[in-house]
Structure formats: structure tokens, C-alpha cells
Design a protein that fits this description.
single chain; alpha+beta; 2 helices
């Protein structure tokens, strides 16, 4: 399971699990927000927290997820397949400071 290998895993829970993120080596490995919680600023708050407290400056995002792309400004690599070889194009992004 991928979650076991993530160095830092944070879960946001307001009596219900509403989102989580995983961080490893200054890279945001995963950020998920429950669909009924999107658009409320939770993802942005988690991303800012990860940048401030864990030095996150890089992430990988599925190209088919335009909401996530807006967090970062610079794509430095693109693949046609995800890490498991599935046909999900990935964008590798870094914060442009």
C-alpha cells in the first residue's frame, strides 16, 4: 500500500474524514479532498501548510485534474503514463519562487 511508505501523512477530520495529504522528501505525494468539501479552501490551506512546515516545493499531478494544476506555476516534466504504467498523463510541477 502506497500510504505506508509516505513519511508524513496528515488527515483533516471534522467528525468526518474530509481530506488528507502525504509528504515525502519535500514533495507533496498526494492531496485528496472529499468532493463535498472542494471549493472551501481546504486544499489550499493544506498546500500552504505543507510548504511552510515541510518545505514542499514539488508535486506530481494527474494532467486530467485541472483543479490541482492551479496550485503550482511551472511544469518541468510530463509523462504519458502514471508511475504504475496506467494511461494517466502526469505533470511534474515545482513552485516557481
Amino acid at each position: 500500500m502506497a500510504l505506508k511508505n509516505v513519511e508524513h501523512l496528515m488527515v483533516v477530520d471534522n467528525d468526518d474524514a474530509v481530506g488528507f495529504m502525504g509528504i515525502e522528501n519535500h514533495k507533496l505525494e498526494m492531496l485528496f479532498i472529499a468532493s463535498n468539501q472542494r471549493g472551501k479552501g481546504l486544499g489550499k490551506a493544506l498546500l500552504q501548510y505543507s510548504m511552510k512546515n515541510y518545505g514542499v516545493c514539488e508535486l506530481t499531478v494527474n494532467e486530467q485534474n485541472p483543479q490541482a494544476i492551479g496550485f503550482y506555476e511551472k511544469t518541468y516534466k510530463k509523462t504519458e503514463l502514471d508511475e504504475a504504467g496506467n494511461p494517466y498523463p502526469l505533470l511534474y510541477m515545482k513552485l516557481d519562487r
